Amino acid sequence: MERDIFSSYIKSQISSDRREEEKAYSSEQISWEEDRESLNILREISSKLDKLDKFTLSQPVAGTSIAFPQSQTMIQNPSNIDIAIINGIVVLPDNGIFNMNVYIKDGKIHSIGRNDSIKAAKTIDATGKYVIPGIIDPHVHLGLFAPLKTELVTETKSALMGGVTTIGCYFGGPQSHFTSFPQIMEDAKRLSYIDIIPHLVIANDEQKSEIQDYIQHLGITSFKIYMNGIPGLIPDVDDGFILDVLEEIKKSNKDCILCSHAENRYIVRRASARIRAEKGENATVLDFTDTHPDMAEEEAVMRLSYLAEKSRVPVYFVHMSSKAAIERLRNIKPKNKYVHVETTSPYLSITKQGIKGNEFKMEPPFRDVEDMEELWKAVEDGIVDTIGTDNVTQTRKEKNNDGPMWEAIAGYPALETHLTSVLTEGVVKRGIPIEKIISHMTKKPAEIFGVYPKKGTILPRSDADVVIVDINTAKEVRAHQLNSRSDFSIFEGRRLQGWPVTTIKNGEIVVENGVFVANHSTGKCLSR
């Protein structure tokens, strides 16, 4: 079979990547004992935070922060530092914010703390700014309306400008993934500016039968199904198919996860038929909301949560949009360790009351204010694990934006506005502690998809993917000023606050003072 032909090639690619990582690790000369010391320090910090009566950030930048004591630095081998980020407010996800420096060497976080005697080849003064791990967007689609090779360049550049350094990208199609994915890996390494966590869509019996081979030969541990597909484009699957997929994943004995677009297809189709009959060609994007009632999402999360628990395989609900589904998950999740939940930055920023025009057409659709507030509540209390975008890059023409609503394609670009929209709504407007927000955008997706602590944190030996954010910078979004190949933005004209000013990827400055300065690709697909 084709998978046998590609097996040796893929293994050599994975082995090569791992040899490069091992070589980089060994060059740092940091012992495991020192790593344990670093983790012990973080545990001590976390313990101190737990003892505080209240730790909030009601006023970003000017709010409470905890100084990192001189005696508790993680400085190791201070010679030959490539980049020193000094005087910044460092965000350690789930732990807090700390006034300390970050030192980078050979593409990795070398150490964190305070040591004014360290000299670096490049020093960045981050006074008054947040220093955060590179953002991980776990939910992205590329190459749907333009060649993947094109969007591996344009959209990953746009991502870096928005502080996103790693994406989880879904790859589909009706054929065996062995026919396409090896080339995708090669193209990503050659063209992408950011790293990619690949997720494979399982849509037919052939792909289902090859799941264990994808795990063994391609290093893939995350898969996706559509409980409600798009007629003519993406097939939906029934419960028997879902159980088969869960069973195949279970056989691997690896930490795998099944992602799902969770809507009851029969409820959606019934509602869609009614709206078509009532509104016909006069239906608007507001009417589209009624074609995907919240009960469709609510029922699907209950059903798949049950199947996951019985199969003992983790599931990941993508783009949760409704209060009804979140309320169900609030009851399910504490009792079901197999359930993980994602929402998106657009759903946390936009409601149906503020939409007009086909550019806002999305599946699931934008909902009411009470739905958005319930999503934010779920972010705060941890029912929501991650925040993605569900980015689907397309132009107005490709989306059929000026045609009838029924013919417009769902989706929009959102990578470059991802971080700033969440900071605007979460930190600036609602006063949610930034370390909590950033955890949902860095550490949590890294943990769920098997790339932590390589990604998702600022710890010694983690990849040096770092973003410096000015929370006080506010500007109006204009699509022509963004870097996506798309020509529209759902945030057009909206004033967003908290923009990245500098992005570091793999220890290299790729965005400096808001200007893209990278001159070569630095990304690859991450095997797990």
UniProtKB/TrEMBL annotation:
<dbReference type="InterPro" id="IPR006680">
    <property type="entry name" value="Amidohydro-rel"/>
</dbReference>
<protein>
    <submittedName>
        <fullName>Dihydropyrimidinase</fullName>
    </submittedName>
</protein>
<dbReference type="InterPro" id="IPR032466">
    <property type="entry name" value="Metal_Hydrolase"/>
</dbReference>
<dbReference type="InterPro" id="IPR011059">
    <property type="entry name" value="Metal-dep_hydrolase_composite"/>
</dbReference>
<dbReference type="Pfam" id="PF01979">
    <property type="entry name" value="Amidohydro_1"/>
</dbReference>
<dbReference type="GO" id="GO:0005829">
    <property type="term" value="C:cytosol"/>
</dbReference>
<dbReference type="GO" id="GO:0016812">
    <property type="term" value="F:hydrolase activity, acting on carbon-nitrogen (but not peptide) bonds, in cyclic amides"/>
</dbReference>
<dbReference type="InterPro" id="IPR050378">
    <property type="entry name" value="Metallo-dep_Hydrolases_sf"/>
</dbReference>
<feature type="domain" description="Amidohydrolase-related">
    <location>
        <begin position="130"/>
        <end position="510"/>
    </location>
</feature>
